[in-house]
Specification:
The protein has 502 residues and is mainly alpha-helical. The chain folds into 2 domains: 195 residues, Fumarase/aspartase (N-terminal domain) (Fumarase C, Chain B, domain 1), CATH 1.10.275; 293 residues, Fumarase/aspartase (Central domain) (Fumarase C, Chain A, domain 2, Up-down Bundle). It contains 19 helices and 9 strands. The strands form 4 sheets. A 3-stranded antiparallel β-sheet has the order 4-6-7. A two-stranded parallel sheet has the order 1-2. A two-stranded antiparallel ribbon has the order 3-5. Helix 1 links the parallel strand 1 and strand 2. Helix 1 packs across helix 9, helix 9 packs across helix 11 and helix 16 packs antiparallel against helix 17. It is elongated and about 85 Å long.
Length: 502
């Protein structure tokens, strides 16, 4: 998706967020946003003028919610809030994550239930337009009142503090803003709090993660079809009537994708009626639709969660302009996202796990239906792709550890006021690594399956598997003698990331 993404306060789509994160779409502020936001701002101003007790406006935060703050000190409190909450540590998150977080935060505030001025949203959109990216440390969130530390770092440049990346260079926000002629904002009541509360950090992980996971899943279907050809497997397990008897949608779709990829394959046709050859293929081949499909259905759940959250009000307290109420509640809690992130990591880890088993089968001369050991041109003198499978096995093992759910491991914070937290940010960090690992595992299978298919010449593969083989060959030549497989794996992994096998 290219073009323009408009911030109006209405829901965004997964594709829009990804397009902005990858800088393939410009962000603009929609007409009518100021009018949409004005009523909730009036409610906050009226509450402040009346001296009402409102969480985060005339009270402290977290366990200090019972501490009254003079309304005249409310603006200073918002400034102190951003500074005190900027406690993140570790390596910064990716630029894609920062863009997604800025976009999602702007949308949330533009809904008109946060009570902030339109100026805040305008400046966030301006930062996206100029690609001024706050440096956001990767560690320090428990996913409870949202990703507080990360959003404090995201918001500091609005007031001329913290650090930003501009044109590839990192510098103090004050200096960068001054060079661009942008004045730091002076926050008013509730605005610091509204810049911190919410689930958009976890949501950014989920939106970007499920998009990547879908590409891995589609590449895994194609890799499986290529492996079926490479090891002279059977196409019978992918028949539509088989999967109609167990009507899981992901299973049916995976079987269809594999079946379509094998259409017209001379390799498959060469032994289609040879029941002695393959009465039953190994599970990693004939059960691929059941495993891939189950993973796909989990991704469907995660996408549904993301779509709901892309239109949700997740601030606290929530301003109801219709009634003039400011209600402290719990929409900022990250549990729905934490579950979706954990489940996605488990599903993707399984896609990698079964892919590695298929790679091992291609390389094992006892189970590959006549392929040379490890696909080496001179076995013994050369080792072929032996160590590529080691790499895949190591990544699968790492994914098993990373698939332990973060969402079941609450650690209370803020003097037990926040006594149950989601750990959704940690789930997102883990998912990011699982996706990286799985991409490389599937890349290894694609490389080995392409080599195996070439060994079946002059028999031709199916039309789609032939295109996939040629795509691999565009960055990885045939293995005529040993060479370092690492660069080849990374090259094909980039193709998977870019959607070349969809």
């Amino acid at each position: 998706m290219n073009g323009v993404v408009t911030i109006s306060g209405d829901p965004l789509t997964i594709e829009q967020v990804v397009a902005v994160a990858d800088r393939r779409a410009e962000v603009r502020l929609g007409g009518g946003v100021a009018e949409r936001m004005a009523p909730s701002r009036r409610v906050v101003d009226d509450a402040l003028a009346a001296g009402d007790i409102v969480y985060g406006v005339t009270t402290g935060f977290g366990a200090l919610a019972g501490t009254r703050v003079d309304p005249e000190m409310s603006a200073e409190m918002q400034l102190a809030l951003l500074r005190s909450h900027a406690a993140g540590v570790g390596e910064p998150v990716s630029d894609q994550m920062v863009r997604a977080m800025l976009l999602l935060r702007a949308r949330t505030l533009a809904q008109g239930h946060s009570g902030v001025r339109p100026l805040i949203v305008e400046r966030i959109v301006e930062m996206l337009r100029r690609d001024l990216l706050p440096l956001v440390p990767g560690q320090g969130s428990v996913g409870a009142s949202g990703d507080l530390a990360q959003f404090a770092h995201l918001a500091l440049p609005l007031i001329g503090e913290g650090e930003v990346r501009s044109n590839g260079a990192v510098g103090p926000a004050a200096d960068v803003l001054a060079a661009l002629g942008l004045d730091p904002l002076v926050l008013e009541a509730k605005e610091g709090l509204s810049l911190l509360n919410g689930t958009e950090g976890m949501l950014a992980f989920l939106v970007l993660g499920v998009f990547r996971a879908r590409r891995i899943a589609r590449a895994a279907d194609l890799a499986c079809a290529m492996t079926v050809e490479a090891v002279l497997g059977s196409s019978r397990p992918f028949r539509a009537d088989v999967h109609e008897l167990r009507p899981h949608p992901g299973q049916a779709e995976s079987a269809r994708a594999i079946r379509d990829a094998l259409e017209g394959s001379e390799i498959v046709a060469s032994h289609r009626d040879d029941f002695i050859h393959a009465v039953q293929d190994a599970y990693s081949l004939r059960c691929a639709p059941q495993v891939h499909g189950a993973a796909s259905d989990v991704l469907g759940f995660a996408e549904t969660t993301a779509r709901r959250e892309l239109g949700a009000v997740v601030d606290n307290p929530i301003v109801f302009p219709e009634t003039g109420e400011v209600v402290s509640a719990g929409n900022f809690h990250g549990e729905p996202l934490a579950f979706a992130l954990d489940f996605t990591a488990i599903a993707v880890a399984e896609l990698a796990s079964i892919s590695e088993r298929r790679t091992d089968r291609i390389l094992d001369p006892e189970r590959s239906s006549g392929l040379p050991p490890f696909l080496a041109t001179r076995p013994g003198l050369y080792s072929g792709y032996m160590l590529a499978q080691y790499t895949a096995a190591a990544l699968v093992a790492e994914n098993r550890i990373l698939s332990h759910p973060a969402s079941v491991d609450s650690v209370p914070t803020s003097g037990l006021q926040e006594d149950h937290v989601s750990m959704g940010w940690g789930a997102g960090r883990k998912l990011d690594q699982v996706l990286d690992n799985a991409t490389r595992v599937v890349a290894v299978e694609l490389i080995c399956a392409a080599e195996g298919i070439d060994h079946r010449a002059p028999l031709r593969p199916g039309a789609r598997t032939a295109v996939a083989r040629d795509t691999v060959r565009g960055v990885v030549p045939r293995l005529d003698r040993d060479r370092p497989p690492g660069p080849d794996i990374e090259a094909v992994a980039r193709l998977v990331e870019d959607g070349a096998f969809e």
